Amino acid sequence: MSSQLSKYNLLPWMVLLLVFSSCKTTYYQSTVTNKQMLAINNQIPEDSIISNYILPYKNQLEDKMNEVLGHAPEALIKNRNIPESKLSNFFVDALLSIGRKVDPDVQFSLATKDGIRAGIKQGDVTVGSIFEVMPFENYITILELKGSDVKVLADFIAETNGQPVGNVEMLIKDKKVQSFKIAGQEIDPNKTYKLVTYDFIANGGDLVRGINSPTYRLTTSERVREGLIDYVKELTKAGKQVESKLDGRVKIIE
Amino acid sequence: MEELKSLSRRNFIKAVVSLGAATTLSSIPFFGYSKSKEVKITFLHTNDVHSRIEPYPMDGSRLQGLGGVARRSTLINKIRSEEKNVLLFDAGDMFQGTPYFNVFDGQVELELMSKLGYDAGTFGNHEFDNGLEGLLKHFDKANFPFVTSNYDFTGTIMEGKTKDYLIFQRDAVKIGVFAVGVDLNGMVDPRSYQGVKISDPIEVAAKYTHKLKHDLKCDLIICLSHIGYSYETEKVSDLMLAKNSRHIDLIIGGHTHTFLDKPTEVKNLDNEITLVNQTGFSGVNLGRIDFILDKKRGTKRSIATTYSIDKSLDSNNVKIA
Fold it and tell me: Smallest CA–CA separation between B285 and chain A, in Å?
């Protein structure tokens, strides 16, 4: 710097230095000029370096996702506007079976209509199909509930025009519980009941009531999705198909 | 000098400007060069990409056909070919959302971000989905740093793996970056972040903005945030952070999957504007914000560290490109 300065009159420099060093604010000031949100759509060609990197992973993933686990003789269609569907019954019956492997005393199962994310197409049921049904990393969770809390849960299910439940029969009228039975038995408010669901619901997801003060809770490290994959594999092994029926377990009466 | 010191701030600025003008008129080549010297810093950003490696399939869903890392790469490369000083940041939740994460445990996301030349990232809650072990598993695949100013990993396997802040130098512009993450309590399985100490984002911001501004003399301060844009409750958010902090030029946000057409301008504690931006999620957008930094007339870089210009000069003396 001194060599540069020596070419010029040093006085203004000295003045500048003294003046400016007495100030505190920054040397630069910034102005925002260009604020854009750029959409990533099909107008932008793919960078082949990146798509070539992705390709082997994509192929490997497709191989894995395309692995056939079982067979569905008919489509299980997602419909959240009905109190029970073949899809929801399949899901909670699987959940009950998975839960009973963890704890044989599990009496009933619960999911939510919003938590089952997709239907199962007719034909081959693949790992990818199960990912679509249950993309989340939710874990099988066992809750022991007081009978009085089960009644609160029943009220919630009635108010929401039915939710997927296993080993339960219930009648709903005008969003009120007409009857609610677990394994054919009325609820005794002084007894406890073991429920299998998953951690998202147990932690307050979907605002399910009646399950927030369990007398016991076990959050397992088994993902619901993995449980479902094993369940379908076992069905196939036993010569069974991925199917379900409407058995009137949740009925809305006029 | 006594006289100068006694001048009011406004007059002082005028004095400075006229001095600058005078020296310029004396046609010292040096000042002629400085006069037009502007530096543009282009920030590109993503958040909540959630393992969306390929574009959404054409399945009738709301975001069908959008996103895709290979396209994002093309766009970023194009901008890099047009602009000299590009910085690319991510605000967390790189992981979880497609089987790419479930099957490859984060390797693909981190390798792709490295190939795209990300300059820094931070952690969202989903980075903890497979626990600290899961986070560490492919952490070495990232060739860029992660900033996590309010997460303390001391005593965990992630200790020393992330930075509290970062400094970037571009054309003599010093850019300071810190980051705040969401409170993981109730959001992540407690087992998955055992031993991680989480501090209040506003307190942490106060600490690091002071350090970056006053100790490290940064010209721009950027906050990568995964605390969320805003809430109806009192939960701390980007808007709240912006309002209750100083010196942050831009908060690059995430977590709430908020789509913004343009950054939100928030007045901070010093009544200055802090920008808050977020790109939605799944990499369907790329955010871009350019800051132009103006070197005043009659200045030279080598004295820049002590040279000061008040922002009130903005209206009458700053040419905006």
Answer: 4
Which of B28, B71, B303 lies nearest to residue A44, judging by beta carbons?
B71
Domains of chain B: 2-34+297-317 (no CATH), 41-294 (3.60.21.10)
The residue of chain A with its CA nearest to that of B308 is A27
Is residue A18 in a domain? no
**Cα(A90)–Cα(B235) distance, integer angstroms:** 39
Nearest to B16 among A19, A41, A51 (CB): A19
Within the 80-119 window of chain B, which residues sit less than 8 Å (CB to CB) from chain A?
96-97, 99-100, 102-104, 108, 111-112, 115-116
**What confidence category does residue A26 fall into, taking pLDDT thresholds of 50, 70 and 90?**
very low
> Residues 132-171, chain B: which have Cβ within 8 Å of A?
none
**Domain span including residue A134:** 70-252
pTM of the model: 0.72
Here the ipTM equals 0.78
pLDDT tens string A46-81 = 999 999 999 999 999 999 999 999 999 999 998 888
- From residue A217, how far is each of A148, A195, A197, A224, B284 by CA, in Å? 17, 10, 11, 16, 39
Q: What is the pLDDT of residue A205?
A: 75
Reported as a single tens digit per residue, the pLDDT across A85-111 is 999 999 999 999 999 999 999 999 999
Query: What is the per-residue pLDDT across B46-85, written as a single tens digit (0 to 9) for each?
Result: 999 999 999 988 877 778 889 999 999 999 999 999 999 9
* CA distance linking residue B249 with residue B215, whole number of Å: 17
- Is A207 inside any structural domain? yes
Per-residue pLDDT tens over the stretch B17-44: 333 333 333 333 343 344 457 888 999 9
Residue B319 at interface with chain A, using a CB cutoff of 8 Å? no
Beta-carbon separation of A32 and B71 below 8 A: no
- Chain A and chain B share a number of CB contacts under 8 A equal to 205
A183 by DSSP, 3-state: which? coil
The span from the CA of B41 to the CA of B64, in Å, is: 32
In a domain? residue A233: yes
pLDDT tens-digit series, residues B181-196: 999 986 777 778 999 9
Over the Cα atoms of chain B, what is R_g? 22
User: In whole angstroms, what is the distance from residue B127 CA to residue B261 CA?
Assistant: 27
Q: Is A65 on the interface with B (CB under 8 A)?
A: yes
User: Would you say residue A179 lies in a domain?
Assistant: yes
- Spell out which residues of chain B touch residue A9, defining contact as CB-CB under 8 Å: 26
Task: Yes or no: say if A166 and A93 are a contact pair by the CB < 8 Å rule.
Answer: yes
- Chain A: give the shortest CA distance to residue B168, in Å: 15
> How far apart are the C-alpha atoms of A241 and A76, rounded to whole Å?
12
